[in-house]
Write a structure and sequence with these properties.
The chain is an alpha/beta fold. The protein contains nine helices and ten strands. The protein has a domain at 43-66 and 96-237: 3-Layer(aba) Sandwich (Rossmann fold), CATH 3.40.50. The protein has helices spanning 7-11, 57-64, 87-94, 112-117, 125-128, 131-141, 157-169, 187-204, 215-218, and strands at residues 13-24, 31-42, 46-50, 72-77, 80-81, 97-101, 175-179, 207-211, 223-228, 231-237. The strands form two sheets. A six-stranded mixed beta sheet has the order 6-7-8-3-9-10, sandwiched between helices. A four-stranded antiparallel beta sheet has the order 2-1-4-5. The longest helix has 18 residues, at 187-204.
């Protein structure tokens, strides 16, 4: 679904962007990488960002995920304006998000359960109380019930990535941001991850925004947004 501007759609959106521009560098080296982005991301849906390398997908994802500061335009994340937000507000907003990246970034000295536990640490003591049951549940759902106490060195690449997915989901985030999360996964593992994200959207209203070239994911997306040279050039609602 390309840029959506009706008040009705925006009122039900998880993220709304208006006239977003972004630059890298300073002085003569300054280069614009995003141009006049208008977009509304629907709640509870799987939205996929597609486009060639350098088209601005990851930059756009990190702006919406509070990992970069908004330079120009407006980004409203779950009703909170990010442009000009204080660091305290940005940190608070990040606690409502889950992040999955192509690199799993697991701690080698921690078991699968302990790595997943780290996804709860930002949520305070109350969330940590039943972390063992929560971590075991999400890992089992992702097909790793027999690997709970394994160190990363004993896991395959696909298993490590599923641990990273579990770490992102254990805190029940309102929005999941994912950058090429299935690149290291085989067909069955990729289907398991996408199925879980879709189910969370249906059952809990979790919104997923994903950068991917994986046709297995694109085929199951609710919405596709295509970028080219920093501009939205096409999009469609599917499913």
């Amino acid at each position: 679904m390309k840029a959506q501007s009706s008040a009705m759609i925006e009122a039900g959106a998880a993220i709304v962007l208006r006239n977003v521009n972004h630059w890298f560098g300073d002085g003569e080296a300054r280069k614009q990488v995003l141009f006049d982005i208008d977009l509304a991301i629907a709640r509870g849906k799987l939205t996929v960002l597609v486009g060639a390398s350098g088209s601005g997908k990851t930059t756009l994802l990190t702006l919406m995920g509070c990992l970069r500061r908004v330079q120009d335009g407006s980004i409203a994340l779950l009703g909170t304006e990010l442009r000009g937000a204080t660091e305290e507000l940005l940190v608070s907003s990040r606690r409502r998000l889950g992040f999955i990246f192509q690199a799993h970034n697991l701690h080698d000295s921690l078991t699968a359960m302990q790595n997943v536990r780290m996804g709860l640490e930002v949520h305070g003591a109350e969330a940590m109380r039943d972390w063992r049951d929560a971590a075991a549940h999400v890992l089992t759902t992702l097909g790793l019930g027999d690997r709970l106490d394994y160190l990363p060195a004993k896991l395959s690449g696909g298993q490590k990535q599923r641990v990273a997915v579990a770490r992102a989901l254990i805190g029940n985030p309102d929005i999941v941001f994912a950058d090429e999360p299935t690149a290291a996964l085989d067909k069955d593992s990729a289907a398991l991850v996408v199925g879980m994200l879709k189910r969370l959207g249906t059952e809990r209203g979790t919104t997923t925004l994903m950068v991917t070239h994986d046709t297995r994911i694109i085929e199951r997306a609710d919405c596709i947004v295509a970028l080219q040279d920093g501009r939205i050039v096409d999009g469609s609602a599917v499913g």
